[in-house]
Design a protein that fits this description.
Shape: elongated
Mean pLDDT: 83
Number of helices: 6
Strand content: under 5%
Largest sheet: none
Low-confidence stretches: none
Helix content: over 70%
């Protein structure tokens, strides 16, 4: 008798909870924890937030330097261009515009890095420039190349 009661209680508990839990979740309207933003959308959101933070910091803290320093002006222009492209990322025309923009950027940047690398190797051979200095500059170029690759890896 005890076995029958134990079996019945366990069966009713499992069946009752198993059948009512999905209805309860729908009724409460809980978000699906497994449903998250696609990776591309997350990447764009992070880039947008980083660009916005950088622009706000440049506008509030470094406003005077941005007016007098061309390098800081170029930083501000870069973040402004990023914000313009990321503003309405989901719109089809903006995605097309961003892809063309970044394709040109990647092409130009890759060419610049290749030419700089060739120049460094030539300087090392012909101009008698120190190996350690050339290696250091090559490492910096490698970092730039890696940044370029990482930045556009998913888009390709």
């Amino acid at each position: 008798m005890i076995l029958f009661i134990t079996f019945s209680v366990i069966l009713v508990t499992l069946v009752l909870q198993g059948l009512t839990l999905p209805l309860l979740v729908k009724w409460i309207n809980m978000p699906d924890p497994d449903m998250s933003m696609p990776t591309a959308q997350q990447r764009q959101l992070v880039r947008k937030k980083l660009a916005q933070l950088s622009l706000n910091l440049l506008d509030t803290t470094y406003l005077a330097q941005a007016e007098n320093n061309d390098m800081i002006k170029s930083l501000k222009m870069r973040y402004s261009a990023d914000m313009e492209l990321l503003k309405d990322w989901e719109k089809d025309d903006n995605i097309t515009r961003a892809e063309a923009y970044y394709k040109d950027y990647r092409h130009v940047m890759a060419r610049l890095l290749k030419e700089q690398r060739d120049l460094l190797l030539t300087l090392n051979k012909k101009e008698n420039i120190s190996d350690s200095l050339v290696r250091h500059q090559l490492e910096l170029l490698d970092l730039e190349e890696e940044k370029l690759r990482q930045h556009f890896e998913i888009a390709d």
